[in-house]
């Protein structure tokens, strides 16, 4: 019986999927439950993270760093 191993491309795409789903979910929760964004901005961020599921949340986290330290 021969051992079948996945290629590096398959491993890369599985890793990207596993990492992007929690990032996407956290971005949506932050957008929905924050008071720092007005409703128009919330809709724009929800749509952008929906249609750009990997890049959209990353841009959101860079633009709105909610996890800043209080003293910083």
Automatic annotation (TrEMBL):
Domain Cardiolipin synthase N-terminal residue range list: 26-62
Ion transport listed as a keyword: no
Keywords: Cell membrane, Membrane, Transmembrane, Transmembrane helix
Residue spans crossing the bilayer: 12-31, 43-62
Location(s), subcellular: Cell membrane
Keyword Transmembrane helix: yes
Topology in the lipid bilayer: Multi-pass membrane protein
One Pfam family named in its UniProt record: PLDc_N
Official protein name in the record: Cardiolipin synthase N-terminal domain-containing protein
Source organism per UniProt: Pontibacter anaerobius
């Amino acid at each position: 019986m021969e051992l079948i191993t996945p290629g590096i491309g398959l491993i890369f795409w599985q890793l990207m999927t596993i990492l992007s789903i929690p990032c996407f979910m956290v971005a949506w929760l932050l957008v929905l439950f924050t008071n720092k964004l007005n409703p128009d901005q919330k809709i724009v961020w929800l749509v952008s993270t929906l249609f750009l599921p990997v890049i959209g949340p990353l841009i959101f986290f860079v633009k709105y760093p909610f996890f800043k330290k209080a003293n910083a």
